[in-house]
Amino acid sequence: MVRLHVRFENAPTSFEPYGAIRLVHQSRKEYVEGKANTFALELDRKLDRSGELQWSGDAVHYHGDKRRFIYFAWLSESGKMFRRIKLYLDKIPGLESSEVTIRVAGRMKDGSPACSTARILSDKE
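Above: the chain's sequence. Below: its structure in token form.
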């Protein structure tokens, strides 16, 4: 099992026309709040139907092409999702360790809430 800590840097707290916004992790069952835009997730490795070792767990979603990822979602004041972020597991350095911490950009270059594919920040950023 791997414990993954994901911290979103410089995440906005409001965005028009949605007003106050919040970032959550979207598990397969529910939205899960982080603490100060930091999320602690547990990932397992299991054999899939074809016998390949793949990431699994409530946090893990997947494409038909076998790429695994974690969804994060932006919710409006009313609780409606308006954007999502995919964090692809194959892009996370050191994920073979038992505990990994990464930093992810919380905003797009134009200052709006991050969306699409997560941008993992290096130690230099």
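The chain has a mean pLDDT of 94.
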